[in-house]
Known about the structure:
Blueprint: E1 9-12, E2 21-28, E3 31-39, E4 47-48, H1 50-56, E5 65-70, E6 73-86, E7 89-98, E8 107-108, E9 117-122, E10 127-132
Parallel strand pairs: 3-8, 4-7
Antiparallel strand pairs: 1-10, 2-3, 2-6, 5-6, 6-7, 9-10
Amino acid sequence: xxxxxxxxxxxxxxxxxxxxxxxxxxxxxxxxxxxxxxxxxxxxxxxxxxxxxxxxxxxxxxxxxxxxxxxxxxxxxxxxxxxxxxxxxxxxxxxxxxxxxxxxxxxxxxxxxxxxxxxxxxxxxxxxxxxxxxx
Length: 135
């Protein structure tokens, strides 16, 4: 049975940067920060930097602790619920923040971001197609 996808968003990402960069707004409590994050289809969860947790006023160690085994080594994190806004679509998500300065990238993983969208990709043209996923 053929599938028919109708994408609402066409995001042109830069070719001169590593990875697929997506601008998002991350909100915790009353604080919101605009950040650039990398789409990471291999990541089970969204993981953000320690610096971002500080900017948002996240009480880092009050959340559940989780250690991720990444290609760059082990990353110790703490989980918190945030609001993520990307391309005028907003949702709440349980994400993780690195516990130290060593983690340098903000990652959008399957839980918390990817599962909220239908995604199409034409990497040769640097284009990401998205539509909010609804059942």
